[in-house]
Amino acid sequence: MIFDATVAGRAVRVEVRGGDGHYTVALDGAPMEVDLVETGRAFASLLVGGESHEVAIEKGPEGYVVHFPADAVAVALAEAARGVIAAAAWPSGPARLTAPMPGRVVRVLRGPGTEVAAGDGLVVIEAMKMENELKSPRAGRVQEIAVREGQAVEAGALLLVVG
Q1: Among 50, 79, 108, which residue terminates a domain?
Q2: Which of 47, 51, 154, 161 has its CA 20 to 30 A from that of 115?
Q3: Tens digits of per-residue pLDDT, 96-142?
């Protein structure tokens, strides 16, 4: 998954690959290995470059606040850089929305048969303690929902189809 974030006032392009607690996270193209273990509902233990960090993650109106023992860092998330394809660029026929990375389905925002516009939120996936709203790549009608709330999904798994 690739997205733009503002971390402590600095714009950063973030790319996350991997799953099952083992990730490669690239910040502005500089990769680092990150191991994540959830230690509670909003708590995690991170191993970044051999250094351990215990954090609490708080969802805010514009993103998240990551609390370290001696500091807190605001992380604002911009629209995902990938995962939303302009309607004009989408080929004809049904659009298959797939999971950009392993995670858990938090919410399904539109039901079968619902009319949607390009950019409407369809599914919310939680990955690495962050919720990501996946949006419709084009206008159409939700034809199929392939997941349910609470379900774990792998990268590339079909979430729903818009036709």
Answers
A1: 79
A2: 154
A3: 888 877 889 999 999 999 999 888 999 999 887 788 888 887 889 99
Q: Which residues of the chain have pLDDT under 70?
A: 78-93
Nearest to 48 by CA among 38, 61, 36: 36
Number of structural domains in the chain: 2
The average confidence (pLDDT) of the chain is 83
CATH number at residue 146: 2.40.50.100
pTM given for the model: 0.52
Q: Are residues 157 and 99 in the same domain?
A: yes
Q: Coil, strand, or helix at residue 88?
A: helix
Residue of 89, 95, 98 whose CA lies nearest to 162: 95
